[in-house]
Amino acid sequence: MKTVLRLLLWAAMVLAGIYFLLPLISTAEFSLSIRRDEYSLDAYHSVFSDPEFFATFGYSAAIATCTIIFGVVLVVPMAYFVRLRLPWLKPVVELIVMLPLVVPPIVLVFGYLRLFSSSSVLPLTSTEMGSNALLVCGYMTLSLPYFYRAVDTGLQAIDARTLTDAATILGASPITVIRLVILPNILVSVLSGAFLTFAVVISEFVMASLLTRPAFGTYIQKVGVAQAYEPAALVILSFAITWGAMGMIQLVARFSPQRREQ
Known about the structure:
By secondary structure, the chain is an all-alpha fold. It has helices at 2-31, 42-48, 51-84, 90-98, 105-115, 128-156, 160-169, 174-185, 187-202, 206-210, 216-226, 229-254, 257-261.
């Protein structure tokens, strides 16, 4: 019986691997087929020689960095106080942070356009800085489920209450406790949430497009309209960036202090 279950498990894993890898392999093969009867990296060379590629990627990386910074400032104190001071509020907070998985991004961005258009009291969309701020807020909302779960998991792995009591006895304020005691102990979880946020931001298209921001996702769509092989190369590069972020999560987790102690 165990042998049959093991074979079924391996069969399911193989089928899942084929299901996910075949489209990626086909896309990679197409991106190398710009020359007839031979493979070449011309499509990738064309992408890397385009100044707009680096401009849009740099813009998305900067927006991702801002999103991560503001996400840490928002999520870490929220998860900390909910776990230690307001445990009765945890079901409500978990429901709220899961809403971005249910509400489509297009609904969120249309709400932003409705509330912050040029005809509103706070016309943020009329300036580039305001639109950038709205984009960061939107990405914070999209990444909130992943960031909050990562931080909450990190708080579960440490004795936050004992650490807080010890720091409070020594005269530390709540902000000091979070900054110098809690944050260093959950740094691996925070970094995991940061890499997930980076992966979400770098490939997002809907919000950046409707807010007319020069993001990497909109660049991929723009190239896809006019060219054939370069979009496939961009898709492979986007997958590589995403998987690189996932690999960094595993690397950080493997060399974390908690793992070394085990």
